[in-house]
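Quick illustration, no need to memorize.
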Amino acid sequence: MQALGPRLFDDTDTDPIDPFELFEEWYSEARGREPNDANAMVLATVDPSGMPDARTVWMSRHTPEGIVFFSNSDSMKGMQLAENPRAALVFHWKSRFRQVRMRGVVEQVSVEEADAHFRTRPHGAKISAHASHQSQPLKNRRELMSRVEKLEAEYDNNEIPRPDHWTGYRLKPIVWEFWQSGEFRLHNRVRFTRTGDAWTRQRLNP
């Protein structure tokens, strides 16, 4: 079967392409070539005043329903998503000269899904989820490490529960854009837009 990647930029091929399947193909290739963190992505949100905000987070899983990441719901991004549950994501795979952008609505994952993922985290990451008051002012590093030490003593190799503020988010794309670097900045760009249950695709100027 022909790979979706070459088909994407073949203007004579008008057969439907599922953008999620294409993302799977590109991500799989990036995992084999990218030196570090092929799952790293920039998450862009908007605050109540309309000012955009962005930061790098890590994709935990991806399914046809959406892209999932986990975070502290009391963090800046958590509060912004609570106020306006829409966001954009960008994956940039420098070694592959490729980029994938997506925009969509965001929902929290179920309690069961958050619990299941938290159980897979290393011990230290579970401690940090409790210790860090994410995005809040910190007097000094010692203040944070003191909380870590107290938590280590409190749990002392016992099971660490998921804190209520630690949860997952799923971005459900309504727009995808696939970008491939081209010579002299004549890049290839193709955008997919959801129309009902189907996707329409459109080549864009670089």
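The first strand starts at residue 40 and ends at 46.
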